[in-house]
């Protein structure tokens, strides 16, 4: 088993570069299936396990896929299969994003039902409601969802009950090849939605309104492969901004786009942290006197749920009591128990967490419950007394490239080891304690 080992107490200093966004590249790669003519070339693709998984899903559907030097090339011009099996959906829920493309391209899609996951039950009823409104018949059975349409999908007016990111993306992709115009109301406004719409338009689609609450998609007859650069990962950027602040350091997060991070920046400034927008990124200068603040996660441009656990780590170092309310996912507080193992003064009250910033954090062996929790536990380790070991790194690898290496380059005392190497580390620590 692999572990990250962090020893607390180092201030971070230097520059760290952000990768392309996981949550932008996954729908963009799903959208490459819409091109029946020409290859798509997608650049700035991070080497994450989720990217390898979606590439496998595409190959399994009969697309030709290569991934080298952060560039994925997809040729989806052959006849595509229409089934995404459970082995992929189980690994990565975003596999359901191929459904809209397959339905539009083949008139049929069969995708394994995603189960629940560590952050809630995560139904996909809004995706299916959209497909049905466009004329598809949807059946659920034997662990699969099947959607089928006689001929082509038809443009429709669809209202989402909640601005779901995945439903907005899946319905948008399906609507690009529908007959007539589709209007989707109450859609998600995340930067990743805008990135997907930009890519679809480069393929020949007619998508308007991305980034606002309403999308208008005029269907076209055919889409072509296109070239695209993925936007920087605002959640990875935010995670390094917190890393800088939590250690009282001074770090330039290169590639961070301030407009994508406005709610996080506002909260960090409210805490007394200095944030400077520079030409090529965002600089964070920490302080020893951070103020407690309240946070409520919301769809974009509200505070992102994907930054909730990292912010929790940061608030454990602020002066006073903070409250964090999670409104996007029903159960995204699994990391709270792990923080308690690190001596955090923190409790769950319904959909909120109340935490006391004067906690005397102590290193412990903790287990990551999802990818952001993994990052947050490492961040807490950076400021805890003694050694923290973080396990279940498969979660971390879904969303962060070389997380420990990047933190080490900023001065953190951190390493990633196999369990077998740990005995060696313990012996080395014992020897250095004896010599001290
Ligand atoms: C790959 C990707 O981009 N993942 C992001 C995406 O996930 P994802 O697209 O799954 O998130 P959604 O915005 O769809 O989900 C938000 C909430 O809506 C609910 N819901 C969603 C769809 C539906 O049909 N019915 C329904 O009830 C979900 O259970 C959840 O409680 O947006 C989330 C919210 O910003 C982020 O945390 C994820 O990192
Ligand atoms: C929850 C996340 O991702 P996913 O939707 O892929 O599980 C995330 O990126 O924090």
Give a quick account of the main beta sheet: strands, pairing sense, barrel closure: 4 strands, mixed
Number of domains: 2
Specify the CATH homologous superfamily of the largest domain. Answer: Enolpyruvate transferase domain
CATH class of the largest domain: Alpha Beta
Strand content: 25-35%
Alpha-beta classification: alpha/beta
Radius of gyration: 22 Å
The rounded distance between the terminal residues' Cα atoms is 30 Å
Number of strands: 26
Small molecules held by this entry: uridine-diphosphate-N-acetylglucosamine, phosphoenolpyruvate
Major beta sheet, strand line-up: 24-25-1-26
Helix and strand topology:
Layout: E1 2-7, E2 13-17, H1 22-31, E3 35-37, E4 39-43, H2 49-60, E5 64-68, E6 71-75, E7 83-84, H3 86-91, H4 98-106, E8 108-112, H5 125-133, E9 137-141, E10 144-148, E11 157-159, H6 165-176, E12 181-185, H7 191-202, E13 206-208, E14 214-218, E15 223-224, E16 227-229, H8 234-246, E17 250-254, H9 262-270, E18 274-278, E19 281-285, E20 295-296, H10 308-315, E21 321-325, H11 335-341, E22 345-349, E23 352-356, E24 365-367, H12 371-381, E25 387-391, H13 393-399, H14 403-409, E26 413-418, H15 419-435
Parallel strand pairs: 2-17, 3-15, 4-16, 7-8, 11-12, 20-21, 24-25
Antiparallel strand pairs: 1-25, 1-26, 4-6, 5-6, 8-10, 9-10, 12-14, 13-14, 17-19, 18-19, 21-23, 22-23
Helix pairs in contact: 1-2, 1-7, 4-6, 5-6, 6-7, 8-10, 8-12, 10-12, 12-13
Bound molecules: uridine-diphosphate-N-acetylglucosamine (UD1) and phosphoenolpyruvate.
